[in-house]
Structures are given as C-alpha cells and as structure tokens.
Design a protein that fits this description.
The chain is mainly alpha-helical. Helices cover 63% and strands 3% of the residues. It has a two-stranded antiparallel sheet with strand order 1-2. Helix 1 (2-12) crosses helix 3, helix 4 (74-85) packs across helix 6 (101-114) and helix 8 (156-163) crosses helix 9 (167-186). The protein is globular, with a radius of gyration of 17 Å. The N and C termini lie far apart (37 Å).
Length: 187
C-alpha cells in the first residue's frame, strides 16, 4: 500500500522521480494508510480523490532537490517552485511553511528579480517532503543537508554537487543542524 500511495502521489507531482523518505516520514505514511482507508469507507470515495485532497493540503508535496541548485536562497527556491510550478497562493505557501504571507510575497518577488524564468523541469532522484520545512528550528539548507546526508546516505561532496554549493558550506550546515537537533532532544 505504501508503494502504491507514493506512486500515486508522485504521479500528481511528476517532477520527483524517486522519493527518499526518512524514518519520521515513513511512520507518517504508515499512519496515513489507516486514515486513508477509514476516509474511503466512511465517505465512500476513491483513493485518488483522498490523495488529491491531501496533495491540495500540502501534506505530500515533494520538492525536488534540483530547485536548490540555483543562485536563489533555499527559501526563495521553495517559494518560487510552489508558486510557479504548483500554482499555490501566497497564503497557502505561508501556511505550509509556517511563515507570514508578507514574507512569502517578498521572498517570491526577490526570487523573480533574480531568476525571471520558471525552473527547467528535470527528473530528480531526490526530493524532500514540504512538511519537513515547517519546523523553523532548522534552516531550510540545514534540513536539506541533513536529509540528504542521513536519509539518502550521500557524502558531503555529492550533496554540494547536487545543490551547487561549496563542500565546506554543506559540511558546516549539516554539523550546525546536528548540534541544533542534539540541543532540542536534550531539552
């Protein structure tokens, strides 16, 4: 069921080919399966309709890694992708990212000044679930680096190449995220 769910969800977001889920996301997906079945039975609707609703709510929107390999900041990359590729409103993006809508509007306009054209659609082996960016304790780049290193088992150099960043930047960002995580868990 989990594989079918991912395939159906990915068919809605064709930019991401293979999605690497971390342990928290896998647990969430397992719990979602039971909820999905209950909703299907209770309202007598098809699975695709439920998945469409979840997709619209942003629960399973995946951000392909290639959007981060530009001269945009990580937040600008996500906002531009969500606005232009998924046609979400500034208010929807703000809610999904746990940020103010004015910040999202400003971020989008800054991104548009830097890169006027849309992202060139590419197949991406790696993607991140949008919900992972709503936790503001880590920066977006910290979340991306952590996910790619820990969950996708990529080396820092490979992450740097994927994101078009310096190896030292990725190493530093990852270790900063790791220290922050330890601090959260020790509280």
């Amino acid at each position: 069921m989990k594989k079918e769910f991912i395939e159906k969800r990915d068919s809605l977001n064709s930019d991401s080919a293979i999605l690497q889920l971390d342990s928290k996301e896998n647990k969430l997906l397992d719990e979602s399966e039971a909820i999905l079945n209950n909703i299907k039975r209770k309202y007598n609707i098809k699975e695709k309709q439920v998945i469409d609703i979840l997709y619209q709510k942003g629960k399973y929107i995946s951000i392909p890694v290639y959007v981060f390999a530009t001269k945009l900041s990580p937040l600008e990359s996500i906002v531009k992708y969500l606005k232009e590729e998924l046609d979400l409103s500034f208010n929807e993006i703000a809610a999904l990212l746990n940020r103010d809508s004015t910040t999202i509007w400003t971020t989008y306009n800054n991104a548009k000044q830097k890169i006027k054209e849309r992202f060139a659609a590419k197949k991406s082996k790696y993607a991140l679930i949008l919900a992972s960016f709503s936790d503001r304790r880590l920066s977006i780049l910290e979340s991306v680096s952590e996910h790619l290193h820990e969950d996708c088992n990529l080396k820092f150099h490979d992450i740097a190449v994927l994101l078009n960043k310096n190896d030292r930047t990725i190493w530093t960002t990852y270790h900063r995220a790791k220290k922050k995580r330890e601090k959260f868990e020790n509280k």
